[in-house]
Design brief:
binds nicotinamide-adenine-dinucleotide; Urocanase fold; single chain; 17 strands; 556 residues
C-alpha cells in the first residue's frame, strides 16, 4: 500500500536515504542519517532546535560539523564521546562497544535550576537534548502519536464506551510533539479543538496532514466541533489564540468539553510558553531584554490556564496533565490545588510500563516507505493477538503521514521488541528491506526515566525522585552492545526535574547486529520490569515471573 509522505520541511536540511554509504560502515552511517533526520524534521533547524522550545541536536554549528566529520571518519572499534552536544573525544574501544555515548545537560543537583542552565547555555558550555533531539532519535510528531492515542483510548474505554465518537476534546499546543494531538484525537474518533498562539505552527501541522482545519475564530471553531460531534465524525480543528485566554473563555460560556489537556511548552517560561496578551514576536524580543517579565507573566497566565482546566474538571470533564510541567508552574503561580489534575502516566499508562510496554520505534535508513510497509506486515504476522499493536499498525497505515525518514512507532514490551528487531535484521540480511533499520524508543520508557512530575509521580513505594534507574539503564545498555547510549537531564524549565536514558540499535543484517539486538533490547526492557517490580507493582512481578527476568535472589 502507498503511504502518505509529508513534503520536505526545510530545503537546507534534506531527508537522508538511498543505498550510498558515506561513512566507513553502516552503523556509523546509520547514526549520521539519524542526526540528519532530526534536523530535517526539526522545528527550527537553523538554530539546531528540534522540538520542545530548546531541545537541540548539537550544541552549536562547529560542534555539529565536528560530529559529522567524526561519524564519517571513525572505525567500528572506536567510540565517540559527546558532552552536551559537543564531541569531546574519539576513543579506541572494540567492535562490540557503543559507537557513540553521550551525556547531555546533567547538572549537579543543587545547581540544576533554570537560571543556571540559561547561564551555562549562554556561555556555550551546555545544551539541552530534550529526550530524543540530542541523541538523534526524534521522528517528528509521530514519536508521541501512539502514546497520545493510547491515553485517549484508555479514557474512552473507562468513561465513554470504547471510543470518542461524539466527544469534544480540548487541548493546546501544536508544536513538535503537541502537533500529534489533533491526529491522535481524530484517530480516536473525537472532535478535537487545538489552540495555538502561533499561526505558523498550526499551518505547518495542517500542511503535513496532522490537522484538518483552522478556524478563523472561537465561535466558528466551537460550531465546527459541535457539528462534528453531532455527526460522530473524527475532526481536528486548530484555533489561533492564547490558551490562557481561550480556555477561560470557553469555560465562561458554559461549554464543557469531555476531555481537556494541554501540550504547550509550559515547562519553559523564557523560551517556551507565551504569556497572554503577548505576540510570539514580542516574546522573542523579551528573551534577552527582560526574561524576568516573561517568567512573571508566563506564570500568571499558566495560573489562569490551569484554573480553567480545574473548572472543567469540577464540571465533569476528564482533565489530565500531558507531561509539560503545567501543574508545577501553576502551583508556583499560586494555584494550590493544581495537582488535583492527574498526570497521564499514573492515570492511564502505568500498567503498561509495569510490563515494559512503551514507545518503541524504528526508522528505515533507505528512506523508502515500502520498507516500513514490509515491517508493518511483519508486525501483524508476529503479534496477531496483541490488540493494542495490531489496531495501532492498521490505524497508523491509514492515517499517519511520514515526516523525514519513514518511521513507525508501536508500543511493544519485553521480548516483543527483541523478537521484532531480530526478524527485521533477517529482512535486512536477505535484502527484503533495502537498507539497515535503526531501532530506538522514547526516553519515557519503563527503565529509562525518573521524573517525579511526569513518569514517576506517585510511585507505589515513594521512589519518585530516585534517578538511579536511568543511570543503571544507560550502563546496562553500554554493557549490552547498544550502538548509541545517552544520559539526559532536563534543561531550561525542566532543569532539575528529570533524568533519562536513550538507546539506538542498528539492524544492519549482520550476526553482530543479532547479538546487539538480543542483549541491548532485551536488557533494556528487563530492567524496566525490574524497576516496577522493585517498586512493588504486582503486574511487574507477574511479568518478571512469566519472562524469567532475573530478579535478585533474597536470603533463604
Ligand atoms: P514546541 O515548543 O515545539 O511547541 C509548543 C507549542 O505551544 C508552540 O506551537 C507554541 O506556539 C505553543 N504555545 C506556547 N504558549 C502557548 C499559549 N500560551 N497558548 C497557546 N499555545 C502556546 O513543544 P513540543 O515539542 O510540542 O512539546 C510541548 C510540551 O510537551 C513540552 O513541555 C514538552 O516537554 C512536552 N512533551 C510531553 C511529552 C509526553 O510524553 N507527554 C512528550 C514530548 C513533549
Amino acid at each position: 500500500m502507498a503511504y502518505a509522505v509529508s513534503p520536505p520541511r526545510h530545503p537546507d536540511f534534506p531527508v537522508p536515504g538511498g543505498p550510498t554509504l558515506r561513512a566507513r560502515g553502516w552503523r556509523q552511517e546509520a547514526l549520521l542519517r539519524l542526526l540528519e533526520n532530526v534536523l530535517s524534521v526539526a522545528e527550527d533547524p537553523h538554530n539546531l532546535v528540534v522540538y520542545a522550545a530548546l531541545g537541540r541536536a548539537a550544541r552549536d554549528w562547529p560542534a555539529l560539523r565536528a560530529i559529522v566529520a567524526n561519524l564519517l571518519a571513525m572505525d567500528e572499534d572506536q567510540t565517540l564521546i559527546i558532552q552536551s552536544g559537543k564531541p569531546v573525544g574519539l576513543l579506541k574501544t572494540h567492535a562490540e562497544a557503543p559507537l557513540v555515548i553521550m551525556a547531555n545537560c546533567n547538572i549537579v543537583g543543587q545547581w540544576a535550576k533554570a537560571d543556571v542552565f540559561y547561564d551555562l547555555q549562554k556561555k556555550g558550555l551546555i545544551c539541552w537534548g530534550g529526550l530524543t533531539a540530542g541523541c538523534w532519535q526524534y521522528i517528528g510528531s509521530q514519536g508521541v502519536i501512539q502514546g497520545t492515542y493510547e491515553i485517549l483510548m484508555r479514557i474512552a474505554e473507562a468513561r465513554f464506551g470504547g471510543d470518542l465518537a461524539g466527544r469534544f476534546v480540548l487541548t493546546a499546543g501544536l508544536g513538535g510533539m503537541g502537533g500529534a494531538q489533533p491526529l491522535a484525537g481524530k484517530m480516536a474518533k473525537a472532535a478535537i479543538l487545538c489552540v495555538d498562539v502561533d499561526a505558523d505552527r498550526a499551518e505547518k501541522r495542517r500542511e503535513i496532514g496532522y490537522l484538518d482545519r483552522i478556524a478563523p475564530d472561537l465561535e466558528t471553531a466551537l460550531s465546527m466541533i459541535r457539528q462534528a460531534a453531532a455527526e460522530g465524525a473524527g475532526l481536528s480543528v486548530g484555533l489561533i489564540g492564547n490558551a490562557a485566554e481561550i480556555y477561560p473563555e470557553i469555560l465562561a460560556r458554559g461549554v464543557i468539553p469531555d476531555v481537556v489537556t494541554d501540550q504547550t511548552s509550559a515547562h519553559d517560561l523564557v523560551f517556551g510558553y507565551i504569556p497572554r496578551g503577548m505576540s510570539v514576536a514580542e516574546v522573542r524580543g523579551l528573551r534577552d531584554t527582560d526574561p524576568d517579565r516573561l517568567i512573571r507573566e508566563g506564570r500568571a497566565s499558566i495560573a489562569a490556564h490551569v484554573q480553567a482546566m480545574l473548572g472543567f474538571q469540577a464540571a465533569g470533564a476528564e482533565v489530565f496533565d500531558n507531561g509539560n510541567l503545567i501543574r508545577t508552574q501553576a502551583k508556583q503561580g499560586g494555584v494550590e490545588n493544581a495537582f488535583d489534575i492527574p498526570i497521564f502516566t499514573e492515570a492511564y499508562l502505568r500498567p503498561l510500563f509495569c510490563r515494559a510496554i512503551g514507545p518503541f520505534r524504528w526508522m528505515v535508513l533507505s528512506g523508502a516507505p515500502e520498507d516500513i510497509a514490509r515491517i508493518d506486515d511483519l508486525v501483524l504476522d508476529l503479534f496477531p493477538d496483541n490488540r493494542i499493536v495490531t489496531n495501532w499498525i492498521q490505524l497508523a497505515r491509514a492515517h499517519v503521514p511520514f515526516e523525514g525518514l519513514p518511521a513507525r512507532i508501536a508500543w511493544l514490551g519485553h521480548g516483543e521488541r527483541t523478537r521484532l528487531a531480530l526478524a527485521v535484521n533477517d529482512l535486512v540480511r536477505t535484502g527484503e528491506v533495502r537498507a539497515p533499520v535503526a531501532f530506538s524508543r522514547d526516553h519515557l520508557d519503563a527503565a529509562a526515566m525518573a521524573h517525579p512530575n511526569i513518569m514517576t509521580e506517585n510511585m507505589a513505594d515513594g521512589s519518585d525522585a530516585i534517578a538511579d534507574w536511568p543511570l543503571l539503564d544507560a550502563m546496562t545498555l553500554c554493557s549490552s552492545m547498544a550502538d548509541l547510549v545517552a544520559v539526559h537531564s532536563g534543561g531550561g524549565g525542566y532543569a532539575g526535574y528529570m533524568t533519562s536514558a536513550g538507546v539506538t540499535v542498528v539492524a544492519d543484517g549482520t550476526p553482530a547486529a543479532d547479538r546487539r539486538i538480543e542483549h541491548a533490547l532485551t536488557n533494556d526492557t528487563a530492567l524496566g520490569v525490574i524497576r516496577y517490580a522493585d517498586a512493588g507493582y504486582d503486574d511487574a512481578r507477574d511479568a518478571a515471573g512469566r519472562h524469567g527476568i532475573g530478579l535478585i535472589r533474597t536470603e533463604e
